[in-house]
């Protein structure tokens, strides 16, 4: 006989029941403070985004290209396996992102949790929040801004490992020659964000050829 | 690496629901499901990585089902309820496609009901079931086979389950 775990197919009625039960479970788990990481997935002009938060604040924004399942596994390993999908707890974050993509919001007012970053990277990533909407900086300028003008490479890695892209706008950091540099969500996403903030932005064309 | 708990709920929520429904009436089955996953979430970080997650969940569900029965109807315990009819599933308002099947599983004699629930709804192996019921694997296998035979006989009597020509 087959001794493997049997994975049955749910009927429509069972799926409905499970959906309601899941909602109740999340609510009760919250009441007992058993949810260490809550997450949800939202649609955006740069693809679907995974939003994850701890009690301290937004801890991760992940692009589709990063693989949402893989990111959840990493969060399970690095933070806690007590992770639940929660449709309501990230409402504020989702709303602010919607407003940002609609062009009506120029800065985010959200608590962030940078516990996934080392201290130096955290310093750089927080500094990103000071680059204004529609503006750009070079990696070298950012290095200067945090008082470590020689740490250009390290600043580059700090931007590349920013756990909270878009909200902490690492897309506003370019190479000194104005070319795009890199981006976790892909260069197309980086260009789209820069164009959203400044329709005159033409940085991508210059780097393509 | 432990899987995010959400995945455990997605992967096994249905198995646990079916086990709860086979052991309890609808209302208590939902309570037991909720209690099971809440307890599981609490204990999850300590669960050894090599553990069989489904067997672990079904064990919790079984204990929660006993709690539910004690809470609402102290005279019935699933281990003693060997011959009597199941504890419910007679609510006509339930629009479940498989209501009839749950009902019949629920009507099986106690041990057959448990083995059928753990095996065919919970997806456990006979070895795991034997461990939970503190019996032998062979006995669990026998009870499972008898339960299925019984179910076939009962369902064959009903027009609803006759095969379409």
Automatic annotation (TrEMBL), chain B:
Residues 100-143 form the RNA polymerase sigma factor 70 region 4 type domain. The keyword Transcription applies. Pfam families: Sigma70_r2, Sigma70_r4_2. InterPro entries: RNA_pol_sigma-70-like, RNA_pol_sigma-70_dom, RNA_pol_sigma70_r2, RNA_pol_sigma70_r4_t2, RNA_pol_sigma_r2, RNA_pol_sigma_r3/r4-like, WH-like_DNA-bd_sf. Residues 9-73 form the RNA polymerase sigma-70 region domain. Keywords: DNA-binding, Sigma factor, Transcription, Transcription regulation. NCBIfam families: sigma70-ECF. PANTHER family: RNA POLYMERASE ECF-TYPE SIGMA FACTO (PTHR43133), RNA POLYMERASE SIGMA FACTOR HI_1459-RELATED (PTHR43133:SF8). Belongs to the sigma-70 factor family. ECF subfamily. This is RNA polymerase sigma24 factor. It comes from Glutamicibacter nicotianae. The lineage of its organism: Bacteria, Bacillati, Actinomycetota, Actinomycetes, Micrococcales.
